[in-house]
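Hey, resending since the last one bounced:
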Amino acid sequence: MADRDPAEIRIADSMLAIDPVEWDRLAGSADPFLSHAFLAALESSGSATGQTGWTPLPLTVSQGGAVVGAAPAYLKTHSQGEYIFDHAWADAWERAGGNYYPKLLIAVPFTPVVGPRLLGQAPELVLAGAEALTTQNQLSSAHINFLIEAEADIAERRGWLVRHGIQYHFVDRGYGDFEGFLAACSSRKRKTIRKERAAAREGLTFRHLRGAEIGAADMDAMWRFYQDTGSRKWGRPYLTRDFFGSAVARLGDQLLLFLAERDGHPIAGALNWVGSDTLYGRYWGCSEDVPFLHFELCYYQAIDWALANGRTTVQAGAQGEHKLARGYEPVTTLSAHFLPDPGFRSAVADFLVRERTAVANEIAALREELPFRKEG
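The structure tokens again:
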């Protein structure tokens, strides 16, 4: 392909209008949330649509007759379901007389998972397409959430502002299995984890179900658990019943369900996605309050399964300092922001410099709270 070949940027109005084979060729198979099946399921189930404030605008770039880049893009009329919080930016822009919404967002809806966002081999062209879409339609801004470091570096060189955040990920440091993980913990922390697991498991049985092993009744139970958690956290759960109903058929072995049962009846569940090297914990809920059961289903069983099945990391969702004592390490997450207005950009840039320092200091302090034995 010659460098001088002009790039053609295309914006579709639906993931369903995108060739699944072409999209998955660019996305690869490592991250299940970037698959055409997952993104199309969000849309066809009514979870991520214009009616919910997530108008799909999947972006593709062609050059020399071949599709070389893509991005899961959305026109957003609010900032809900993103987990990168820009509400203060929206308030400031609108107090100044502007309209912050709609904005352009490149992200996986409702999914605070770190992974590639500029798919294919032409990230510069994808960024140029996002910039053109923003400026030509006089949008306030464009944003890319939870992108990887290499992409953030490219965006920053093009003038995007890079923001730092914090998540907690489990990383296999050569533990081998859960007992090996415990051996790396201090004696006091190891005893605490054992006690928590014993208390959570008393009187309960557990099932791990993957793909076709997940029956309709199992997913019905998980939907009920998700509804309860979602209504308490967000007021209205983001995902529709139809998404849960079709998830197994559409996503197959990417799904892994942990169920806790009492006398044969499910009382709690954790729904995970399986990547090539990462287990992603996504949704949890319960119908009975059992001490430490959340930690058992969402954190300890995730570590146990990942170590037993060759996954080197566990991403267990956004926020949660309580993950530290369970072996989940603080890591820096990245987002990138394109703000065409120079005054607005300058104000946000000043804020991000201060925020980045605060995040670095917080991560350093949080690492002191990890349960592992101190060397030396």
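The radius of gyration is 21 Å.

Sorry for the duplicate.
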